[in-house]
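#onboarding

Welcome to the new folks! Below is a worked example of what a typical request in this channel looks like: someone posts a single protein sequence, and someone else replies with the predicted structure as tokens. Don't worry about understanding the tokens yet, we'll cover that in week two.

Example request:
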Amino acid sequence: MFPSVSFTVNTCMTDVPFLEQTLRHVFRSLDFPFSERLIAYDPGNPMGKYDSRRRGDSAEILAIFDRLLADGLIDRVDTVPWSEEHQADVLMRYFDRDDIALKDFDGAPIYQYLYALDRCTGDYIFHMDSDMLFHTTPGISWLAQAIEMLRREPRVVFATCRGGPPQARNLLERFLKRPIGGKPPSFWFKAETFSTRYFLMDRARFQSKLLPILQAKSAEPLENSITHTLKLRGLERWTTTGLESWSIHPWRHDDNYLTYLDDLIWAVENGVYPFVRTGYRWDMRTENEHIKEWLDAIAGAGRINSR
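Example response:
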């Protein structure tokens, strides 16, 4: 019997400009039979680095939820509760203490992420940030491959697909405009850190072997705490190395990103990307002149920009 897999994503007002396009893309690209598809919605005001981001209003985001629910893409929207009782309950369950900061030093969520996980009922949980984009080769599911791997490897709690498509790593590759070297020696690779951007999690293993989460520093990002706890407990995150599936994340939700989002989604879904590009492999840089790298690749693949 195939195990149940929950889908969950955290959302807030700053997601309005890109949320609907992104989620429709994700379900289309992953093409996976999730047992439930959940949104955890935080109606509160962003803090820290998120405070300066453009945002919509409650009417806009609720209308997005209504359309996703009506189309059967989402099963339920849970509003994150902010009562002290709810906060203490969730923090105790995951940290075994209730004096943890609800957000990290830079305003990123801690309590909200854990609340979203807490609402899931699947044997496995796939969680993603609301702006993640995924490339998946038709007929190949990295989520199904990850479940098979997690069943074999008792030390592994989290699985992810490769972060970003190939990128020129040196002057020669930039000149040749192609990668040099052979294929990775194995399909799975042990990652040194954990990221909350996206992951597939073995829920029972997470609860029985990793919890409680331990902080190395007060008010640190949740992903730092989980990285710290994984190392202390001898547990791991593995990621794929092949090109069949990969993820990419916008570095900024700037005007260029929002203007060309349909084209950028098309590029990711079709495996189109600039091999020579700015930034980290897993980040999509669109600010200022960097958008041209992506638009040139899109035009080279024969697509006429939608704008």
